[in-house]
Every structure is written in C-alpha cells, then in structure tokens.
Fold each of these.
Amino acid sequence: MKLRVSADQNSFKIFRGAFTTTLTADGIALCGQHALSNGQFYSNNLYTITGASSILSSTSLNAAIVALSVQPDQTCVILGQQPAVLLVPPALIKLALELSDSALAGDAATNAINVFRSAYGYRIFSNPYLSAGAGGSDTAWFLLARNHAIKHIVRQGVETYLRPWGMSNNRTYLYQANFREEVVALDYVGVIGAVGSVSA
C-alpha cells in the first residue's frame, strides 16, 4: 500500500506544480504562456484565456472544452482536440459529477439537457494527491485530451523481495519493494489547467 502511495505522490506532482514548477520542454510552466513559432504566445491557463473566474462551473467547463478544441501546438496548428479526462481534487468531485453526470443541466432552473453528459465522452478522475493537504490545491482542476503530452515513464516495474529472518539481528522477516518511474510533461498540448479561483 505504501508503495502505491509513493507512486501516486510522485505521479501527481506534475499537476500540483502545473502553474509554477512543472516545466515543459520550452522551459515554461505546464499551464502557462508558451511561445509559438509565429512569435505570438498561447496560454493554456483557463484564467488567462477567459480573463475571469476559473472556478469549476458549467460556464468555466464549457470554456475549457472550447479552449481545448481550438488549442494550437507550437507550430500554430489547431489540433481540434476533445476532452477525455476531467481531473479534480477530492474537494471538487461532487461538483464535477453533478455538472457532468446529471440528466439535466446542473445550474439551471429549466429542464435543459446536460450537454456535457450527452455530447462529450470524458471521464472524471479524482486523486487525493492533487489536494491542498498534499501540497496541491482544493480548487485547481484540469481538462485533458486523449493524446495529451504528459508521459508516465517506467524504468523499472515494482520488484519485491522477502528478506528471511536469518538475515536480521532480531529474527524478523522484512518485506521490501522498489520501483523506478517518473512522470514528465513534454508539451502543453492536450492540457487546459484552471487555478479555480478568481485571480491566477
């Protein structure tokens, strides 16, 4: 169990530092302002894109979906990506499910259908290592396309070894496990990040 915890803590540091310390190949934060080949800049930080609140709501979720679909790569080509994963901390899982999985629109008094549920096939994931208690944020959330550029590299899978009692001073067994893996953000493509607050 502790091994799985270590792997998750290591993997989700990418998102905990997405607006500050997680750098892509261009040396800019994963959810930051990236230079394009035509000399212009592109930001995949939802607050910068909308110039308004990026708190999770039907409005901000729709803005993130639109931003993902028109997101250019560094050569200025719009890739037309669609959402595959809505990644939220535990504090936002209830709201994310209400916005995405309700039969009717979650924040409207009318009987409008929930377009997020009927039109998009994304899944909702939550992880405790995104939360403020783990060094992340209880308000930040991310929309990922299927072909995002965040990669999980396994250099060595989990290996276990039971050290027999004859190799200890107090005649006890010791169960050991180790692994070597890393998660890297090669590019910003396929990721829209939202700090989830009124100011970035």
Amino acid sequence: MRSLWNTMGFSELTAYFEGNGRYQGHGGGSYTNGDANDELNAHLSERFRGSARRNDGDRGPTTSHASKILVNPDVATYVQAQKAIYEKAEPGDWLAMPEIPPSSEVCLPEGTSIVLPRNRIDQPWSKPERYLKAHYKLLREDAVAPLREAVDRFRKDPQRMDDNETRIYEQVRVVGMTFTFQGIASRVRFSTARSGRRIQWSSSKRLTSGTLVALTPKNDNFNTKCMLAVVAARPLRNLESDNAPEVDLLFGDPDDLEVDSQNSYIMIEATQGYYEAYRHTLRALQKQSQEA
C-alpha cells in the first residue's frame, strides 16, 4: 500500500476520479477503475452516476464531478459501530480480529496445534460474552481451516497438480488496480496450467467472489511469505479473454498490496468452505457482544 502512495500522489488520485479513471504506473501496469461491467457490485444503486469520462483522444482537463451518492444512514451507523469495536478492543482479543484473516491464521509453523474452546451443549453458559467468544472462534476456525490445510498440502508437495481439495494458480501477476468502495483491489492475471484442462468459467465455481485465497512469491512456497486476500470480483469477460484469466483481489493487510507487475506469485484456493458465507456472521457476533 505504501508503494502505491509513492507511485500515485494525492493530485494524481484526484485527477483519476475526475478523469477517465486511468493511471499508467511505472512498472508497466495500468491502474483503472474499469468499465461498468468490471466494477465491484456494479449492479448496486449506490454507484457513481453521471461521472464524465474523457475520450481516449482527449487529454485535456475536465471539471465534471461524480454526482452525490445516497447512503443508507442505518448502514452507515452499523459500519461505524463495527469500527468502534475494533478501536476499543485490546490487541489480540477476539473483538479485534479483522474480517480478512491475517497470514498467521493460515500459514502456521509446522507442528503448531490449534486450541479451540469447548462448545457447551448440555449446560448453560455463565456469561453471554463467553458464549459469543467461543462460537466466534469455532466459526472462524471452520472458515479458515480448509485454506490452511490446502497450504500445508502445497508445502509438502510444491509440484502437485490440482485435485479435489486444492486449486493452484501459477504466474500470478498484478496487472492493474481497481478503486472501489471497499478499498483498492489488485487485478491479477494468472495461469491455470495445473488444472490440466480448459476451465469453463461460465459454469465453474473457481474463484467465486468472496473466496479466501493465499499467495506466496514464486519459489518461496509459503516458507517466509504468505498473503491472504478475498476475491472481490471475477468479471466473466476478463476470465474468458484471449489473454490469461484475471480476477480482482482485496488484500487483508494493506502492506501486502502489490503494484509491481514484474513479481510472480503462486495462489492457492481450497475447494471446501466458502469464506463469504462466514464473514458476515463473524462480524455480527462481534457486534452482538456490545449488545448482550
């Protein structure tokens, strides 16, 4: 993330939003907010409306601005309350755990054991806080365990091919950035050579939006570097283009946000579990702790 701000100053970001949404990076990749069909949550009514776009041949300045976005006040209040929980929680406490898990939850040293609370089903809980905390940890483990096991299998056999439990993508490179309401997403291009077949993306469940994935630099094999991200969008036309398929990723740690198109990574996806199905329930349990 820091490297992105070093590349794009405030004035350039302002010009980006007022112009056609394109910025040419120093590494050869372009940073773009994409067309309407490429945007995250493009079907929602809260998107920008009436924003002027310059023609490709028009390099002159523009004074047009995006129209006002209507925000549901109830949603804004909910988001602000969730942010306050994170800020007040002690470091390491379950209330301070982020939505996208850090690498320490997935890429564990060999031999590390996971300690989980016991779920009481035959007697009442002494305090509501203990009930919420226990179920949060159990649910979060259920959400991240499939990816952790997939990473462990890859560590033991880095040359393995896709199987029924693990999907492996090679030559993962950042080719652009997408500015969204959720944050700055990285558009990555990758190879599906390890699948051993042609992927029918229109009917495939691979890299569905909301899927949790793990990335590691080429030849590192998750030994020293592990980055976690959530698939933000998978425009079908980007997956079925003449070039290699592309998806947008939202990284959990801003420092993991990569902008150098020369760096190559390996990306791992677990076939079991779907993180987006757990994500909102985990947030609700954290918020419920303040209302119990």
